[in-house]
Amino acid sequence: MENNISTKQKILDAALDLFSKKGFTAVSVRDISGAVGIKESSLYNHFKNKQDIFDTILYDYTKDCDDFFLQQNIIGDNMKYDISNDQVIFFSNMSDEQFVDLSMNIFNQFYLNPQVIKFWRILAIEQYNNPEIAKLYNKLLFEDVLNYQSQLLGLLISKGILIEADPYVLALQFYAPIYLLFQKYFASGHEKIEIVKTEAKKIFKNHILHFRKVNSNKRGGE
């Protein structure tokens, strides 16, 4: 049983790596089995086909996201990304240090994690070949993030914690530099270079502190 689990994970890891370099369409089951070092027929003992492999990668990514956000108190036990009053209190009472720690945890998990970066690359490549992948890429990388942030920022504005502004525009202002950092430093293959990670982290920290200072009513007079 141990060997079966190990082989299945090797298939997923090899597929993720190949998909991230060539795209889902250009990679064959033979390519994946060759990378793992098993016969093509053996791969079918673990997965129905190439699509099944990708669906498993997507499921694992989604589960990891949910587990992480639950651990960070960003979503509730219902696993929904709706903003609750408890979450508003949680965010509004944060010190700068706590805000930086949470933001850095998210940045590390979703923009510095090599496995996640590979997943983003697959979607980025395949969005031009598959309309469904294009929808998924837009949903995961833009819609979900901006909708969640605009909901949260809107409630913080209504509580008088942040300055009066359009919540969605404020979400764009917060998220755009983060996405730019990801594209500049990691989307093209530099994620293994620690000095690049250190530089990106420094810029990211300065950005979130600047955003918090400029848009917070509590710090408006400072």
TrEMBL record:
Pfam (any one): TetR_N
Start and end residues of each HTH tetR-type domain: 5-65
Database matches in PANTHER family: ACREF/ENVCD OPERON REPRESSOR-RELATED (PTHR43479), ACREF_ENVCD OPERON REPRESSOR-RELATED (PTHR43479:SF11)
Name the UniProt record assigns to this protein: TetR/AcrR family transcriptional regulator
InterPro entries xref list: HTH-type_Tx_Regulator, HTH_TetR
DNA-binding region residue numbers: 28-47
Keywords: DNA-binding
